[in-house]
């Protein structure tokens, strides 16, 4: 049986009485592009910082490539790349000095060539002082630093913040290329479009707890439907059926809602109403995620 690249068991973190994450369980297999999605404050960065041994858990455990994230952190970091949400580096160095320091740290062969290739790809001036860089250019430095040693696992925490659309496209093309070579990618974001475009499987985290783990394609195939119905007359019992959620009243006696029950039961229920117009469609990925966030 293959050992998961990331194996999280009952992981919790509290900051005093404040909740960080609670009882997180997650397995990510080798070669996956896995999404970790949730609104700001949901617990994404807390989970990642524990994986990187930047903070200690209150309870539970986490392993990367079979190694304990606390006990074996030095071995793990030689095989993991990490892009934090707040890109920063040693401000006293210029870009080339910092990246050269990184290749010495990771003992990268042909490191100078790797720096040249990646900096050219991201159009990054190696002579600039890090302290003088814009947010976007600091993020480029962080991306390059994370990839210099061709890590087996790449952990990304809101990695596109500060990148313009062109550089985002370059970044995603590079990630796809690295994944084809065998790199596993753990991609944390609150931008749903990125997850839809890039990831194959996703965990949805809300309030410090994982509420769903699912293939992106399967999320679209769920029974959840988006319904809009215009009735001759609205009253408080117009939608008295189980499975109706997030009801929005619109103009001209129109109701819009998400429906998670049997669609035949809904149609039978509505057949007893005076329907002027009815539309049932697949929700967008954004609407699916928002459904999980709100409930």
Shape descriptor reads elongated
Number of domains: 2
Distance between the termini: 36 Å
Give a short account of the largest sheet. 6 strands, mixed
What average pLDDT do the residues reach?
Answer: 88
What helical percentage do the residues reach? 25-40%
Write the element-wise H/E pattern from the N-terminal end onward: EEEHEEHEHHHEHEHEEHEEEHEH
- Report the total helices: 10
Kindly state the number of beta strands.
Answer: 14
Q: Spell out the CATH superfamily of the largest domain.
A: P-loop containing nucleotide triphosphate hydrolases
Reported by name, the CATH topology of the largest domain is Rossmann fold
Runs with pLDDT <50, length 5+? none
Kindly estimate the percentage of residues that lie in beta strands according to DSSP: 25-35%
Radius of gyration: 23 Å
Question: Any overview of this molecule?
Answer:
This protein has helices at 44-51, 73-77, 95-106, 111-121, 135-147, 165-180, 192-198, 216-221, 263-270, 285-294, and strands at residues 6-15, 18-28, 33-37, 59-64, 67-68, 80-83, 153-157, 184-189, 201-206, 209-215, 225-231, 244-250, 254-259, 275-281. With 295 residues, it is of the alpha/beta class. It folds into two domains: 6-217, P-loop containing nucleotide triphosphate hydrolases (Rossmann fold, 3-Layer(aba) Sandwich), CATH 3.40.50; 222-294, Alpha-Beta Plaits (2-Layer Sandwich). The longest helix has 16 residues, at 165-180. The model has no long low-confidence stretch (mean pLDDT 88).
């Amino acid at each position: 049986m293959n050992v998961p690249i990331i194996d999280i068991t009952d992981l919790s973190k509290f900051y005093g009485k404040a909740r960080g994450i609670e009882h997180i369980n997650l397995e990510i297999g080798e070669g996956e592009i896995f999404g970790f999605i949730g609104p700001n404050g949901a617990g994404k960065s807390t989970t990642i910082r524990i994986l990187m041994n930047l903070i200690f858990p209150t309870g539970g455990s986490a392993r990367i490539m079979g190694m304990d994230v606390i006990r074996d952190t030095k071995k793990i970091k030689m095989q993991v790349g990490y892009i934090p949400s707040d890109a920063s580096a040693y401000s006293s160095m210029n870009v080339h000095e910092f990246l050269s320091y990184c290749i010495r740290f990771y003992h990268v062969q042909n490191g100078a060539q790797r720096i040249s290739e990646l900096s050219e790809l991201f159009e990054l001036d190696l002579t600039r002082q890090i302290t003088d860089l814009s947010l976007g250019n600091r993020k480029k430095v962080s991306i390059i630093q994370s990839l210099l040693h061709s890590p087996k696992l790449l952990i990304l925490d809101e990695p596109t913040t500060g990148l313009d659309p062109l550089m985002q496209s370059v970044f995603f093309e590079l990630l796809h290329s690295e994944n084809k070579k065998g790199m596993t990618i753990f991609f944390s974001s609150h931008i749903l479009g990125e997850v839809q475009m890039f990831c194959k499987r996703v965990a949805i985290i809300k309030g410090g707890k994982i509420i769903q783990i699912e293939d992106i394609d399967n999320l679209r195939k769920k029974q959840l439907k988006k319904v809009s119905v215009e009735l001759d007359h609205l009253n408080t019992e117009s939608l008295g059926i189980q499975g109706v959620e997030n009801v929005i009243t619109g103009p001209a006696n129109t109701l819009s809602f998400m429906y998670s029950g049997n669609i035949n039961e809904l149609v039978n229920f509505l057949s007893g109403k005076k329907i002027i117009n009815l539309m049932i469609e697949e929700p967008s990925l954004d609407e699916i995620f928002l459904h999980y966030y709100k409930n």
